[in-house]
Specification:
The chain is of the alpha/beta class. It has 13 helices and 13 strands.
Length: 430
């Protein structure tokens, strides 16, 4: 495989997995190369063929002028010479890495791989996973050997859902390969679409580790902010006032407290600590941060319950509105949403809980978490939790909250977007 063959469209690039990561990669490459977009979900393929992104990240115009064929047929992958794997790598209920989809993708690639092909992994994994877990599956299924018959590499994804500024092309891409030749060829391929430049990691393990610690670092910094919020709450100090004051120092890192969910920050640390535990090392700092962040949903719910006990005659008859259900603002992604923790905690007290979200699918919420979304809000809430700071909420005034709440209601504004706006209702934020 040479890059010239790809550029001349004599060779084909395939992207396996067309979710938040795979689809932008596939569309970007298809502006320059001949691309096969593969996903095992036939319904997703049908939508993509009609220029509809199920993740609501890409618009119809993004599909224009693309040389791409969407398919769920494994046999179509035999036409490819350069494979990029971008499938989900979540954790299970016990925070153990779930590599089932990645291993299934490796099995599929092994069935269609031929001599001279390249495989690049973009899915988040622990250091060593590509060479120790994935490549053996491909070698067994294909009868080929990495390095001799085919080449492999790892290039961690840096897709940030909802972020139109740091798009795929405008973020530095880390690349790695199984040897010097593969590193140069993989870098040459990605250089076709990455405007910001490339960083060539010395090994696949290094690139895997870099991806994991990017999110470990953010997780720990947010955990510190969340723990500070827990402390300042007991001191009756407003955390955002403290952060605003401290932020005037030139080297203060500007993180803020909040719910930490999603498929990256709330998941990746467990990949690293899992591998560390296999090597006989028990993480202290990383898992401590995880415990703090995983607790925040319950903390918010406890705060609401305490307010209701003090200000209502019967807690069980109280009504709570939760605004926002996705894992972060301005996206439809509900994976690992910590809003669900708040909902479940409140429902355990038999409260009537209404949830709204302008981006999330009510059907998906019901399937994933067991509760659906409200289309319209009522006017008699005892508490409102603004859990996700969607842009749609920024225009809401104090009058809006007064119209939907009782006089004794509390407005829990987790990210502080109504700081200095609400005075005629009890106001609280992390």
């Amino acid at each position: 495989m040479t890059i010239d063959r790809l550029i001349n469209k004599q060779a084909v690039l395939a992207v396996v997995g067309l979710g938040y990561v795979g689809l932008p990669v596939a569309l970007s490459f298809s502006k320059k190369l001949k691309v096969i977009g593969f996903d095992i979900n036939p319904a997703r393929i049908d939508m993509l063929r009609n220029k509809i992104d199920p993740s609501n990240e890409m618009i119809a115009a993004d599909f224009d002028h693309c040389d791409i064929y969407f398919t769920h047929e494994i046999e179509d992958l035999r036409k490819a010479d350069f494979f990029i794997l971008a499938v989900p790598t979540p954790v299970d209920e016990y925070h153990v890495p779930d590599l089932s989809l990645l291993k299934k993708a490796c099995n599929i690639i092994g069935r269609v791989l031929k001599k001279g092909d390249y495989i690049v992994f973009e899915s988040t994994v622990y250091p060593g996973c590509t060479e120790e877990d994935c490549i053996p599956i491909i070698e067994k299924e294909s009868g080929l050997k990495m390095g001799k018959d085919f080449k492999a590499g790892y290039s961690p994804e840096r897709i940030n859902p909802g972020d139109k500024t740091h798009s795929l092309e405008k973020v530095i891409k880390v690349v790695s390969g199984c040897d010097a030749e593969s590193l140069e060829n993989i870098a040459s391929v990605y250089s076709l679409i990455i405007e910001a430049g490339l960083h060539k990691a010395p090994s696949i393990k290094t690139a895997e580790a870099a991806k994991v610690i990017e999110n470990v670092q953010r997780d720990l910094n947010i955990a510190l902010m969340n723990e500070l919020s827990l402390i300042f709450d007991k001191m009756d100090i407003k955390t955002y006032d403290v952060l605003e004051a401290a932020g005037t120092k030139w080297n203060f890192l500007k993180f803020s407290p909040g719910l930490v969910g999603g498929h990256c920050i709330g998941v990746d640390p467990y990949y690293l600590t899992y591998k560390a535990s296999q090597l006989g090392f028990k993480s202290r700092v990383i898992l401590s941060g995880r415990r703090v962040n995983d607790y925040m949903g319950n903390f918010v719910a406890e705060k609401i319950i305490r307010h209701l006990i003090l200000h209502t005659k019967d807690v069980k008859s109280s009504k709570v509105l939760i605004m926002g259900a996705t894992f972060k603002e301005n996206v439809s992604d509900i994976r690992n949403s910590k809003v669900a923790d708040i909902v479940m905690f409140l429902k355990n007290y038999h409260l009537e809980v209404h949830i709204t979200d302008p981006y999330a699918s009510s059907e998906d919420m019901l399937k994933e978490y067991g509760f659906s979304l409200m289309k319209e809000v009522d006017n008699d809430y005892d508490a409102v939790i603004v859990a996700v700071p969607h842009r749609d909420y920024f225009s809401f005034s104090e009058k809006y909250f007064m119209n939907i709440t009782k006089e004794h209601a509390i407005i829990a504004d987790l990210k502080g977007i109504y700081k200095g706006v609400i005075f005629q209702r009890k106001y609280w934020s992390l």
